[in-house]
Amino acid sequence: MIIVNGQQQDLIPAQDRGVSYGDGLFETIAVVDGEPLLWSMHMDRLEDGCIRLNIAFPGRELLEAETRQLGGDDRFIVKVIVTRGSGGRGYAYPPDLAPNRIIMRSEWPDYPHDYQGSGIQTRLCEIRLARQPRLAGMKHLNRLEQVMARAEWDDADIAEGLMLDMNNNLIEGTMSNIFVVDQGKLLTPSLDECGVAGVQRRNVMKLAGESGIVVNECEIPVAELGNYSEVFVTNSIIGIWPVIAIDSLKYPIGQVTRMLQKSLGHPA
Amino acid sequence: MIIVNGQQQDLIPAQDRGVSYGDGLFETIAVVDGEPLLWSMHMDRLEDGCIRLNIAFPGRELLEAETRQLGGDDRFIVKVIVTRGSGGRGYAYPPDLAPNRIIMRSEWPDYPHDYQGSGIQTRLCEIRLARQPRLAGMKHLNRLEQVMARAEWDDADIAEGLMLDMNNNLIEGTMSNIFVVDQGKLLTPSLDECGVAGVQRRNVMKLAGESGIVVNECEIPVAELGNYSEVFVTNSIIGIWPVIAIDSLKYPIGQVTRMLQKSLGHPA
Hints:
The structure is a homodimer. By secondary structure, the first copy, chain A, is α+β, with helices and mostly antiparallel strands. Helix content of chain A is 23%, strand content 31%. In chain A, strands 8, 9, 10, 11, 12, 13, 14, 15 and 16 form a 9-stranded mixed beta sheet that branches. The longest helix of chain A has 15 residues, at 39-53. Chain A is globular, with a radius of gyration of 19 Å. In chain A, 48% of the residues are buried. Chains A and B meet through β3, α1 and α5 of A and β3, α1 and α5 of B. β3 (11-13) of chain A pairs antiparallel with β3 (11-13) of chain B.
């Protein structure tokens, strides 16, 4: 089911600036037993992105009401897209443009293995993330880097690809954020110049802090990857997946990862 | 008028990957007296972009036939968008996805002044272009940098904003390419790391070469801008606009610019 600007339909205006320029933002949200999980964090990020791009934020109540129209009693995924709207002349846009809202339901992904329990194998992608501080952190619709990265492999044993910036620092997965454990501390890449600041990343940082684990946002050079005792990736749908391999580097599933999975209590 | 996959309509599938990820390409083409100008160069670039992004190229004949459905006897603009298609799971896409074609007619822009004759004032934009060689040169749908750049000013006396990369090199205008004249030689920024390789840019380089003017693609540091005798910008719609000012730097409209405008014989 798809709801476009409050109406159930599966079409949008051809002149929408989302398709013309990727001029908008999105959120991918887990809905379990009728509740959109981490809803307020998703709305925080979406509103922040709207402010940074100067897009009129449609409002939490409206987006929640439309999300709840998708149904409530099982487990599914909602994608909320907010574009700047339709029209404008070229790249310029009028100040009063009404944004378009696209709320899409999709099935819970049927991952082939027990990734939460057994962990995942990953690879380093060849394409690097460009440095663009003005877009960093946002979940905007300009996602060709991720599309190209994900197209680099089709080996079903590889569950995620990891992306570096141009300076050989690890930044994120194609669809996830990454954490490493270094002598008991939790490290995650700083995202001031590229990358998406995931809602689950923020949630895990909060849970770790509440459990007394020190969390640092910092540079994680690819050359250091052999020095970490645990690695995991996060997103709103998967929760926490332990990483047991990055190409030929192997990792155990450690106690920090297991403790955070337990704190998260995520049903995926 | 809008033609979507051969049918006259103004809606596209909400699940189109153009809107989800900016996963596609576009061309903006001048149509004059029934003829789409520089058609084969536009199709060369579009096909090259499809190859680089692994999108199935719909074919020149089909796109030309659909473009000609928009009418023929006056002067207008056609925007041709080709997206990867609808669907896939997240960033991953199936290998056999059918692309979506969106062919849109719009009015010839009513520029407020005789920019071809009198030249334009420009400004340097604050936002910098990110370095991403894997996307450089293509006219893809990830255009938030241009949208943000164009939103930096609303002074009607400024006809174009010029964009630098992170290393203080001039790259292009928000909607145009740029050329400078340096001791009789024509220079234009190399676009290996960022920027759109405009069809009119290629055309002007060809015309200049045929006229015996040396053309170099090179770095153009912003610090050198005071040293050039002529500056102009190009695109498929505007042809050649002389630049008479970049912020407080002033330029005359010189003979290389005038000669190339004459060679171009562009009706805009």
